[in-house]
Design goal:
The chain is mainly alpha-helical. 62% of the residues lie in helices and 0% in strands. It has one domain (18-28, 48-435). Helix 1 (50-68) packs antiparallel against helix 16, helix 5 (150-159) crosses helix 9 and helix 10 (246-273) packs antiparallel against helix 13. The protein is globular, with a radius of gyration of 22 Å. Mean pLDDT is 86; it is low at 1-48 and 428-437.
Length: 437
């Protein structure tokens, strides 16, 4: 999927620890005033928030495990990989997308005026590039192997544009409203919309049925961008926070654990105490077999739940995008990120393999999907181990000599050029207007 921090939010690596690049860095980064560097060269950041890339590496490997390992054991229970990663890894990616957008658009500083315009233009370019990669991967990745997240991810970057100037409090307020209200609105609206097609999106689908594709990316698909804006808002709030503060990290981790507890408790009360599970089962079995209902509850739907009863919104199955699923996965994301950042304050050695992979997830996610779809790479646990070893070794080797992953470098150069062009045009226009007075 896809992602230096300014001096106010940077944290020095422990002595002797290698410094990894970060794929959120504008190219070139520019100074604190928003003026781009005139050197034209890509700079490695002098310090790293290694924990963020480590969290992103966890999300990448989690998705790889779900794509390779069977969801159920012989006894009918979910496998460990699916318990740990299903639904959580993709959500963590989305939350970290918000962190990356915050870093690339000023860190703790909120952007306004021409800086907002420049960052908005760069986000549109980033979305176009990532969406293009996703639609191309859709040509070669069978949907029953993996659902390509990149087109949805691209739309999230566009939705981030109006959020850039907002305060942390405003972002968290919007996240709360979206978490509660968007699944309800979706439940109402989706009863009148065609279901998403069980295929990965390509340019052919985009050009043939643009409105259907937009509805799928926004509401009906497996990673619906509108309710997933909650992850984006929380990630932006995290990226605007003082991440050098141990207190901030402890609050973040504690808040994540608290959200997990709230979601689990509320879901169990609604389903098992109030009696929602019995009503849900009765209604659901009118439209599906017991086996289908079992799979839907245990393994989760493809991003949305049926609309035949409101009790679906009390569930928190993976990829259900209910209020409680969003709450739960936001909590998991905050807890994982907070833990990684706290570990990174004391040592980066333990996190380096994960952080190396997490610093170039667009490249490695694409590589993983190509290996997953290749007839020469086995599936199952052996395929997972082969792919994990491949992406980690590649990341460690590549990061020794390059500031970014291959695809990340292309994205950074083009988005950086867009940002500089907008800022340059604004300054040129201002000088011209002054000269005419």
């Amino acid at each position: 999927m896809t992602r230096p921090a300014d001096s106010a939010e940077s944290v020095a690596s422990p002595a002797g620890a290698p410094v990894l690049p970060h794929d959120c860095v504008p190219d070139p980064p520019g100074d604190a005033s928003g003026t781009p560097s005139t050197t034209g060269r890509t700079r490695r950041p002098s310090v790293r928030l290694t924990g963020i890339d480590a969290a992103r590496g966890i999300a990448l490997i989690g998705m790889m495990s779900v794509h390779n390992i069977s969801p159920e054991n012989d006894d009918g229970n979910r496998t460990l990989a699916w318990v740990l990663a299903d639904g959580k890894s993709a959500a963590l990616f989305a939350l970290l997308a918000g962190v990356g957008v915050a870093f690339a658009s000023g860190g703790r500083r909120r952007v306004r005026g021409r800086l907002w315009l420049a960052n908005s233009a760069s986000l549109i370019v980033r979305a176009a590039l990532i969406g293009t990669v996703g639609l191309l991967l859709g040509l070669v990745v069978p949907r029953d192997y993996a659902a390509v997240i990149l087109p949805y991810y691209a739309l999230l970057f566009v939705l981030a544009i109006p959020l850039l100037p907002l305060s942390i409090r405003s972002l968290l307020t919007i996240a709360t409203v979206v978490t509660v209200s968007l699944p309800i609105i979706s439940h109402l609206v989706r009863s009148h919309l065609a279901p998403a097609d069980p295929i990965n999106l390509t340019f052919a689908e985009l050009f043939a049925h643009p409105l259907h594709v937009l509805a799928e990316l926004s509401l009906t698909g497996i990673y619906p961008a509108l309710p997933w804006t909650a992850y984006l808002c929380v990630g932006l709030a995290v990226g605007r926070s003082l991440l050098t503060s141990r207190r901030t990290l402890l609050i973040m981790t504690g808040a994540g654990l608290g959200l997990i507890a709230v979601a689990v408790t509320v879901s169990r009360v609604l389903l098992d105490v109030v009696g929602g599970r019995a009503d849900l089962t009765t209604v659901a079995l009118r439209a599906m077999t017991p086996s289908q209902f079992h799979d839907l509850v245990l393994l989760g739907p493809d991003g949305t739940t049926p609309t035949d009863t409101w009790w679906w919104l009390a569930t928190m199955s993976p990829h259900s995008t209910t209020p409680l699923d969003l709450t739960y996965t936001i909590g998991v994301g905050l807890a994982v990120l907070g833990a990684c950042l706290l570990i990174g304050r004391t040592t980066t050695a333990l996190l380096r393999p994960l952080a190396a992979a997490g610093s170039m997830t667009l490249t490695l996610y694409s590589l993983h999907l190509l290996m997953l779809s290749s007839p020469f790479v086995p599936g199952g646990m052996s395929g997972f181990l082969i792919q994990t070893a491949t992406v980690v070794v590649f990341a460690l080797a590549w990061s020794r000599y390059h500031a970014r992953g291959p695809l990340e470098d292309i994205v950074a150069r083009l988005t950086g050029a867009t940002r500089r062009a907008v800022l340059g045009a604004d300054r040129t226009g201002a000088r011209g207007a002054t000269a005419q007075r």
